[in-house]
Amino acid sequence: MSLTGLVRARRALRQAGVDDRMALERVPHTLNEVWYAGPYVLRISASPVSRRLEHEANVAAVLPIEVLYPHVVGHGRGPVGEWLLLRRAPGRPLSRTWGEMSDSERRRAVSQLADAMRALHSVVLPQDGPSAIRPPFLDRNTLECPHQLPPARTLELVDQATRLPYVDAPMLANAADIVRAGAIALNGDHAAPTLVHGDLHFENVLWDGRQISALLDFEWARPGPPDLDLDVLLRFCAEPGVNVAADYEQQLRRRDYRDLPVWLRESYPELFAHPRLNERLALYSLAYDLRELLLRPPRGPIDQLPTHHPYNRIRRLVEMRRAAHSNLW
């Protein structure tokens, strides 16, 4: 726990108008600086220019109670950067408790998650007027947004990736074909006004021992098709250690998540109902991984890259789609 971090946190608490003398506990997190402060959770953005926590606070104002988002105490910006203060919900991240849970508890958790997702996907973000909520990461031609859509934007990233060293241009040409097929399957749905979470994996879901107590981290929330939320969730099932804090990533086992997509489909069948779902999921996957590839370009021969490198994820998807058009879930 650094002195600088403590100073930042206490300044944010003072700015929020709450007692800044309470004990602080630093919480491992993959993106932001997060603190437990008595009955509160304080998040401080790692980026001095970010507006994503402000966006999350705006989104929170339109979420129905069934989404299980914690109460927002305050939000602001100051010398410490952007911060968001929430009422602390009971429980631990579901990714930390899943390995200890029985199958019946897991099924109950997935059923409750489906209910929260359905409530989330019922929200239509206001697009016009003074109450409009526009994600700050969708308006700029940058790599900030995790899913680089619409498909025309995804194809731009394929073109950029082709110019990287060490990559196989024919493999990326096949990826471009997958994007084009996905665009037909998507049929303009990328512009749907319904709200999606954008980063829905189990470190962003709290479990209190009996039930799901909260859905967290809506800074990537955006308008889009509901099945876009399947991409991050399914990639979490396939690689559960990738999106969690480093202190327990080695404890997560892929086999523990094998049944999760089946249970989710039972509880939320309409999320899986599109007749060309696999082409849509392939597009979402590439819209995510091509961004990651440009942010983490190969620094050496491809055969020396780690298994989870985005280039290898793209290559595996291309090979899988080429081999009898395998399903992605």
Number of helices: 10
In one word, what is the shape? globular
Sequence stretches where pLDDT stays below 50 over 5 or more residues? none
Number of domains: 2
N-end to C-end Cα span:
40 Å
Taken in chain order, the helices and strands follow as HEEEHEEEHHHHEEEEHHHH
- Classify the secondary structure makeup into a structural class: alpha+beta
Architecture (CATH level 2) name of the largest domain: Alpha-Beta Complex
Oligomeric status? single chain
Biggest sheet character: 5 strands, antiparallel
What share of the residues does DSSP label as strand, in percent? 5-15%
The first-level CATH class name of the largest domain = Alpha Beta
Count of DSSP E strands? 10
Main sheet: which strands, in order across?
1-2-3-5-4
Determine the CATH superfamily of the largest domain.
Aminoglycoside phosphotransferase (APH), C-terminal lobe
Mean pLDDT: 93
Rg, nearest Å: 20 Å
- Helix proportion: 25-40%
CATH fold-level name of the largest domain: Aminoglycoside 3'-phosphotransferase, Chain: A, domain 2
Written overview of the protein:
With 329 residues, the protein is α+β, with helices and mostly antiparallel strands. Helices cover 38% and strands 12% of the residues. A hairpin with a 5-residue loop joins strand 1 and strand 2. The chain is globular, with a radius of gyration of 20 Å. It starts with a helix and ends in a 7-residue tail after the last helix.
Short structural summary:
By secondary structure, this protein is α+β, with helices and mostly antiparallel strands.
